[in-house]
Amino acid sequence: QVTTKDNIVRREGCLLFMSANAMPAKRRQGGSEGAGAAAKQKKTEQGREFDAKCINSIRCLGADMPFKANSGHPGAPMGCAPMAHALWGSIMNYAPKHPDWINRDRFVLSNGHGCALQYAMLHLAGYDLSIDDLKQFRQLHSKTPGHPESFVTPGVEVCTGPLGQGISNAVGMAIGAHHLAEKYNKKDLEIFDSYVYAICGDGCLMEGVSSEACSLAGHLGLGRLIVLYDDNKISIDGDTALAFTEEVNQRFKAYGWQTLEVKQGDVDFTKIVDAVLKGKKNTGQPTLIKVTTTIGYGSVKEGTESVHGAPLKAEDMKQLREKFGFDPEKTFHVEEDVLEFYRGKCEEGEKKYEEWQALFNKYSQQYPEEAKEITRRFEGRLPDNWKSLMPKYTPNDAPAATRNLSHTSLNAVHSFLPELIGGSADLEESNKSGLKGEGNFATGEHGNKYIRFGVREHGMSAIVNGLFAYGGFRPFCATFLNFVTYGWGAVRLTALSRFGVLYIATHDSIELGEDGPTHQPIETIPLIRATPNMLMLRPADGNETSGSYAVWLENRTRPSVMALCRGAVPQLEGSSFDKVAQGAYVLQDWSAGNTGKRALLAGCGSELHLAVEAKKLLMDKGVSVRIVSMPCWDLFREQSAEYQKSVIPAADPNLARVYFEPAFPLGWERYFDDWVGMETFGASAPKKDTWAEFGFSAPHIANLALKKLDLPTVPEPMVTSHA
User: Fold this and answer.
1) 64: which residues sit within 8 A by CB, 6+ positions away?
2) Dist. CA 59–CA 320, nearest whole Å
3) What is the band of 41 on the pLDDT scale with cuts at 50, 70, 90?
4) Do residues 114 and 73 make contact, with C-beta atoms less than 8 angstroms apart?
5) Which of 72, 325, 442, 707 could cross-link 66 (Cys pair, CB 3.0–4.6 Å)?
């Protein structure tokens, strides 16, 4: 490779003209001063021209992808290109050949519809994303899907697209960055010093989830978080003035953020870089940089909603390239000097990675236990013999609410798993989510692990996604089951993203009684069960609660929602820690050798003990009874057909298969003949009255079986009505 002065200018790009702008403390005297200043000015101009070329190359790639796919959003990539070049070209630390480097800076494109921008940067920066991959934008099984997917594209940290989620994930990542630095850095060896950068749009800041997360970020003083806000004043419907006229920087200043502004973001590249560097210096506050841009910059439709979500026309594409000084006939083309500049950034990143590895090796020698722990955490391995530390129960143990049993299991995990981190949406006492001996994660206390999320279910759910994505954490969060749907936009993305987050969801049914139907979930359980790659766990007692935690820990690539009751339940004969992993199992079996009338009673959670009472009533009628516990339908469906049939036999005239659970009976006919479920909302009343009103009593359950077997029924409890 030939090295020339021009090549040096191109390769150093923005870094060159940045240094040229810094005036020396003392000027040289004499005639040489003028010549030196002129040379410096020339270098600065060359640097600016080259950076403009890089930015315009990014813009063209961002337009090429939607054009070839005849689908996508070119406007944001074209408008945000200067921000992307600032971050990837001069600010961020990354190593494309080691995309999982634990001390890399994290980048989040919150306005994920503009993902052509991210793919262009990943390609230029040297990640495993070829120009042919860019040409497969939005095609089946490609590495460049229509919105960023963290499990598909190397270098993509989180799944974004639903607006507001990415910036909220970035808050979680920043919590992770601060915590690891506080916990593991030593005065002589700082191994964690990464930042989290995000680009977001107007839509992200209109969504309520971002308000929840960003309010908390300011409260927590997350100085490692820097967000560039693409203020292009356009949404799908037109000018944002139709619905969004607030002063965003004032709002964020009220949140406790440092707020900066770049008014000419299309062309004033140096101001963007300067603003980011200023943000990095403020370690006590997150920073929002409002960058005013033109959506679709360079297009004949720039600055309008027409360029937001539709590819440019062929004529527009040609004039765009010609306007930027490129061959109008060449698509997906990046000139060699731009490629060379980014190859240099790749080499620089790999060198930083190697230097960090040397630093970590030194750290490992001086602090071997901490180094082993860090390595295990980021490899996703659990400590040895951890299951022996989980609580176990016998039928002689006192009855307890599963939310209380969850608290015991959660703190058992806390005792051996330093990567456990999380908290509750202002419901710690109700959710029983506290960590014994653990302080609150707060400004100046970033080494602690209990997060006070406040009444922010949606923000909380998005934040724990960011924590998991950061690596080295197993986050949990807690609220009422009915309010999981407050955060559903983020919860669904947990499943899609393959993040092993734990959602502790208490007050899980009409069992909570007096709070009434506003708080009693009916549709939530079937919604979660219907969601791909998500486990709905509903334990019936202590062993199953402890076993549910084991299931969560062993499933790193899918979230677990643990539905827990408020009232005390007995420790059941036959319950199993290990068998929770099978989804359903025989709790108590029918009498050996019985060939007559049989009943199979199945359930989960706080009602399962009713089957034990119903069994006695049925046995008095000469019916042999099997009780099946089904703590996780999702896991049961994954078992072999032989196992499923061994637990729940096929239909038979002499067999009554009855299921009961206070949820909508979606899909229950797959295994059962009859059931007690909920097809209406609940009611406000004491628990015993709501259960009786909706059929959750041992006599009613027994009668469903007796009717199926053509046997006489037993009396059922009367519901007392109070004036």
Assistant:
1) 134, 317, 331, 332
2) 9
3) confident
4) yes
5) 72
Q: How far is CA 501 from CA 275, 442, 530, 563, in A?
A: 35, 21, 18, 14
Residues in the chain, total: 723
Nearest partner of 588 among 598, 600, 580, judged by Cα: 600
**Catalytically active residues, by annotation:** 457
Look-up: residue for tokens 């915590």? 179
Nearest to 222 by CA among 183, 257, 251: 257
CA pair distance 226, 221, nearest whole angstrom: 12
**Which band of pLDDT confidence, cut at 50, 70 and 90, is reported for residue 45?**
confident
pLDDT (tens digit per residue) in 443-458: 999 999 999 999 999 9
Distance CA(227)–CA(466), nearest Å, equals 15
The string of DSSP letters for 108-128 reads EESSGGGHHHHHHHHHHHTSS
CB 249 within 8 A of CB 259: yes
What's residue 88's pLDDT?
98
Measured CA to CA, the distance from residue 281 to residue 228 in angstroms comes to 16
Q: What is the mean pLDDT of residues 552-575?
A: 98
Q: Which residues contact 83 (CB under 8 A, 6 or more apart)?
A: 199, 228, 230, 265, 272, 291, 293
Where do we find the tokens 């420790």? 571
Q: Which of 19-28, 84-93, 431-440, 561-570 has the lowest mean pLDDT?
A: 19-28
Q: Are 174 and 196 in contact (CB under 8 A)?
A: yes
> Each residue of 67-86: b (16+ CB within 10 Å) or e?
bbbeebbbbbbbbbbbbbbb
- pLDDT, one tens digit per residue, over 97-119 is 999 999 999 999 999 999 999 99
Q: What is the mean pLDDT of the chain?
A: 94
Provide the 8-state DSSP code for 623: -
Separation of alpha carbons 270 and 161, rounded Å:
29
Tokens of 175: 């919590």
Spell out the residues 6+ positions from residue 676 whose beta carbon is closer than 8 angstroms to its own: 658, 659, 660, 661, 694, 695, 696, 700, 701, 704
> What stretches of 87-164 show up as alpha helix (H) in DSSP?
115-125, 131-135
Structure-token pair, residue 103:
């001390």
Average pLDDT over residues 493-510: 98
> CB under 8 Å to 442, separation ≥6 — which residues?
220, 448, 452
* Residue 335: both structure tokens together: 């000139």
Spatial separation of the C-alpha atoms in residues 598 and 616, rounded to whole Å: 13
* Pairing relationship of beta strands 238-239 and 234-235 according to DSSP bridges: antiparallel
Q: Return d(Cα 52, Cα 44) in angstroms, integer.
A: 12
First to last CA, the chain: 92
Six token digits for residue 3 = 């090295």
C-alpha span between 364 and 155 (Å, rounded): 27
The DSSP bridge partners found for residue 423 are: 451, 477
661, two tokens: 């659970």
- Predicted confidence (pLDDT) at residue 20 exceeds the cutoff of 90: no
Nearest residue to 696 via CA among 445, 511, 482? 511
- Is residue 426 within 8 Å of residue 569, measured between CB atoms? no
pTM score of the predicted model: 0.95
Strand locations in 519-566 (E): 535-537, 560-563
Give the tokens for residue 342: 């980014």
Edge-first strand order for the sheet with 655-660 is: 585-588, 624-629, 598-603, 655-660, 674-676
Instruction: Supply 497's token pair.
Output: 């993203």
Query: pLDDT above 70 covers what percent of the chain?
Result: 94
Amino acid identity, position 430:
S
What are the tokens at 564?
């827990």
**How far, in Å, CA of 590 to CA of 624, rounded?**
5
pLDDT at 46: 85
The pLDDT value given to residue 37: 73
Residue type at 253? K
